[in-house]
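We treat protein structure as text, and this decision shapes the records that our systems exchange. We quote a single record here, exactly as it is kept in our systems:
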Amino acid sequence: MGKEKEKEILRLCGDHFEMIKETVDEMRSSVIAFHERDVDRGRELAEDASNTEKGADDVKRRILDDLGKGMFHPIDRDEILRLVLVADGIASNAKASVAKLAMIPRDTMPDSLTGKLVEMADKLVSTVQTLTEAFSALVDGSKDVFELCQQVENLEEEIDDFRAGLIGDHFLPWCQGANRAGACIILKEAMDNMEKVADQAEDVADVIRSIAILSS
């Protein structure tokens, strides 16, 4: 890939990353509002996350259009394509998680459970922030990229452990006592979406590592 074209496409990828990060930030704010029983505000923020995710989709399409013009080496094109498509899933799952959460009547859920959702959202924001820093390090040619990618992997493992505790200690007891099968299913799907945010962040970190190695 020519150096100037490489810089141009990576700048566009940087815009994509920023919108993904903003979507995850709005997801967290929506979860906090839901926990604080400000349901209307939570739904507004969930809509904000949806709109930002749509903006990220627009940037993704611009990147794909550029990649489709055939001006890149096939290996470079494939790596950037993987980076963009996997990263796009982060925003999609962040948006989906709060859209589903907003469907559940808040007064059916204890504060202890919603508080844990806030903690998980906090961890996801930290993960995506670290991922964004890893991408910036890649663009800058900094060797910090490898350490930052490892941090993303560590955070993903921490979120896996946290989610297991959340399900065992809070989610399952609530489901057993709430007698609301539909709400339980929707919340489980929302938590699955949140977990996928972390999973796909780790996948993106792997792609960033690969690009860093190929560029070295």
User: Anything to note?
Assistant: The radius of gyration is 18 Å. The chain has six helices and no strands. The chain has a mean pLDDT of 91.
